[in-house]
Amino acid sequence: MDLLEYQGKQLFRKHGVPVPEGRHADSVDAAVAAADELGYPVVVKAQVKIGGRGKAGGIKLARNRDEARAHAEAILGMDIRGFTVHELWIERASEIDEEYYAAVLLDRSAKRPLVMLSRMGGMDVEEIAARDPQAIVRLHIDPLLGFQDFHGRRLAFEAGIARDVVRPVGAILGKLYEVFIREDATLVEVNPLLVTKSREVVALDAKVTLDDNALWRHPDSAEFRDVSAEDPQERMAKERGLQYVKLDGNVGILGNGAGLVMSTLDVVAQAGGKPANFCDAGGGAKADEIVAAVEVILSDPKVTALLFNIFGGITRCDEVARGLVEAFERLDISVPVVVRLDGTNDEEGRRILAEANLEGVHVAKTMLDAARRVVELAGPVPQEARA
Amino acid sequence: MSILVGEHTKLVVSGLTGREGSFHGLNNRRYGTQVVAGVTPGKGGSDVEGIPVFDTVHEAVAETGANTSMIFVPPRFAADAILEAADAGVELCICITEGIPVHDMLRVYTQLKRDGRTRLIGPNCPGVLSPGKANVGIIPAHFFKPGSVGLVSRSGTLTYQIGNEIAQRGLGNSTIVGIGGDPIVGSSFIDIVQMFEEDPETELIVLVGEIGGDEEERTADFIAENVSKPVVGYIAGFTAPPGKTMGHAGAIISGSKGTAQAKAEALEARGVRVGRNPTEVAEIVAEILGARV
User: Fold this and answer.
1) Considering only Cβ atoms within 10 Å of each terminal Cβ, which end of chain A, N or C, has fewer?
2) pLDDT per residue over A156-201, tens digit each?
3) Do the chains contact at B140 and A312, CB–CB below 8 Å?
4) CB distance A260–B237 less than 8 Å?
5) Is A79 helix (H, G, I), strand (E, B) or coil?
6) pLDDT > 60? residue B245
7) Hey, what domains does chain B have and what are their CATH numbers?
């Protein structure tokens, strides 16, 4: 789960990472009141889970109340690369002397936490890395040993940051590592890590990603989830315990197991079709899950045909067939459905489908046949595919 | 031969008394796997259809000589169960549990590497099957028969799909290994490919990858340097949009690295033939082994 800047800063504050004082606001009036309370100048910052807010005009300096109001009015409701701004973070402005970059993340390749520091912060980190790979100092941490003071000193000295802030920067890296470990984060990124004119070091931004698998350890963080910002189909799927990702085609897809579903999307694309979604009913899916999945997939108005691709391992094909029959009874299914059942109890499953004699249901023998058939039935993708 | 599991396997199941654990544990025993013990703290002294249950893995190992552990406990307790099995000295631990926090796995992985005694497969994996010998996990064994194709995959059902298409062409498997779809898993493609290379029964290796990470790319380099047997690849996720997670926590694209295209190209550049869909993979395998297509 990606956090908004102000949510990340809440975690920073909890673990002693210095951040500028700020207030959350979700209306223009609340933003002005927050700015008054903090004292001018303030920065009005759009809260969206995407980079490039500054370039898009989502971060503005306000020197007085009129400017605060004008900026809040302009930024609330603004679209930043597909994300609508519903929330603001009003922050006391900082006087910038230097901008660094700091991050702690999970390095999958090395299977260790990785701490990074650069004295060239403030811009896109990929840009820094491309321009001068040496500019980013990297250090892997042994998760059983943890982050030691010398790690902080070493990173700070090797990154060549100003000598007077080596100690505070090293200490902040240690605290960011604390955030990473204690909050079960997979990414903790600060860009820029600011040195103010009075030579204080503060985290001016916060990009934090939490491990969804560990949210049970963090009931407070679980509340950060903003269901209103989620896609309606994706939210519906989540409530029903399904793995669903919305795409922009017209072929609805349901399968069991993430790998098989990904493969199904590929095969549909190879057959000339465009998948409308990724939907994994999971291992051992029973009739209820199937009905729920069909409901979610068909709630997307772009879907013009549906493909069931099931390879039964733990999942039993007869259960899937029963689910489909039930879905036809409970839902108004007006699009053609192609079904491919293979694996555990597949013959029984096909028999159930044959007996139910459902209108618009086509049984295909193989995955490739099924893909070709559904693409044929779905027809071309409408020009205005994106809803 | 075959790798990892076989006639020598003596299995202890952590979580044998649970619903899933007993279902699959007994299933594995029916297949012929020697399931010698179960572990559920507080239920020591009982049994599951004749399989003795112990309070600790240490006790189970001491009493039964178990050398392989299968973990079927809920995600909150799974990391602890893996560490317990390793501490008790089992050589191989196969963790089926899905949804273990990644920080737990960071610690477990580091500890197991440091200790050096226990190989971990998974977590979030379907297990390991050596057809005709032993099945440890949830792979539906009836689709597979003994043979010379070694199959290693990050995904469960996709493995069954490809394995089944290979079986339909009259070919069997030495061993099928699901290494798991999580960002941190105990054994990598490279580990398993190396075992298949050294296994006299394996003639050909099928590698089933998917988007995310750089495992497939690194394995391509390893194959070029160290593997003499033919390798056939498959990568799922060509149509996955950037930045979206598709079920497996591991399947996350970051930048251009980790895309299906990049992985397929890396494998092909190293002489690995890559099938565009499961059927094509099976066709290439059959062609190489000269079986009926």
Assistant:
1) C
2) 999 999 999 999 999 999 999 999 999 999 999 999 999 999 999 9
3) yes
4) no
5) strand
6) no
7) 10-121 (3.40.50.720), 144-289 (3.40.50.261)
Q: Taking Cα atoms as reference points, which of B165, B170, B286 lies closest to residue A365?
A: B165
**ipTM of this predicted structure:** 0.89
Write down the mean pLDDT value for chain A: 90
Q: Which residue of B has its CA nearest to A268?
A: B239
A96-222 — its CATH code? 3.30.470.20
Query: Does the pLDDT of residue A384 top 70, yes or no?
Result: no
Chain B contact present for A257, CB below 8 A: yes
Euclidean distance between CA atoms B265 and B217, whole angstroms: 9
pLDDT in tens, B163-196: 999 999 999 999 999 999 888 999 999 999 999 9
Hey, is B84 helix, strand or coil? Answer: helix
Segment A40-51, tens digit of pLDDT = 999 999 998 877
**Residues B75-97: tens digit of each pLDDT:** 999 999 999 999 999 999 999 99
A281-297, pLDDT tens digit by residue? 876 677 788 888 999 99
Distance from CA of B156 to the nearest CA of A (A): 7
Question: What is the pTM assigned to this prediction?
Answer: 0.91
Provide, as residue numbers in chain B, all residues whose Cβ is less than 8 Å from the Cβ of A108: 183-184, 213-214, 250
Alpha carbon distance A303, A360 (integer Å)? 15
- C-alpha distances out from residue A169 to A31, A163, A185, Å: 31, 10, 20
Which residues of chain A does B161 touch, with a Cβ-Cβ cutoff of 8 Å? 260, 263, 311, 342, 367
CA atoms within 13 A on the CB side of A43: 20
Strands B10-14, B68-71: pairing is: parallel
The number of helices, as runs of H, and strands, as runs of E, in chain B is: 9, 14
With b meaning 16 or more CB within 10 Å and e meaning fewer, what string describes A346-384? bebbbebbeebebeebbbbeebbbbbbbbbebbeebeee
Mean pLDDT for the stretch of residues A92-118: 93
Beta-carbon pairs below 8 A across chains A and B: 165
Q: Is the pLDDT of residue A18 over 70?
A: yes
For residue A179, give Cα distances in angstroms to A41, A151, A215, A226, A373. 29, 16, 14, 21, 51
* Residues of B classed as catalytic: 248
Assign A94 to helix, strand or coil.
coil
CATH 3.50.50.60 assigned to domain A230-378? The reply is no
Interface test with A, best of B31, B115, B239 (most A CBs within 10 A): B239
Whole-number Å distance between alpha carbons of A42 and A9: 17
Which overall architecture, per CATH, does domain A21-92 show? 2-Layer Sandwich (3.30)
Q: Is A213 exposed, middle or buried (0-12, 13-18, 19+ CB in 10 A)?
A: buried
Whether A343 and B164 lie within 8 Å, measured CB to CB:
yes
Q: Where are the domains of chain A?
A: 21-92, 96-222, 230-378
Q: How far apart are CA B66 and CA B62, in angstroms?
A: 8
Note whether B93 and B68 are within 8 A (CB).
yes
In degrees and rounded to multiples of 5, residue A55 shows phi and psi of -60, -30
Tens of pLDDT, residue by residue over A323-382, are 889 888 888 888 999 999 988 888 899 999 999 988 899 999 899 999 999 999 999 876
Per-residue pLDDT at A42: 97
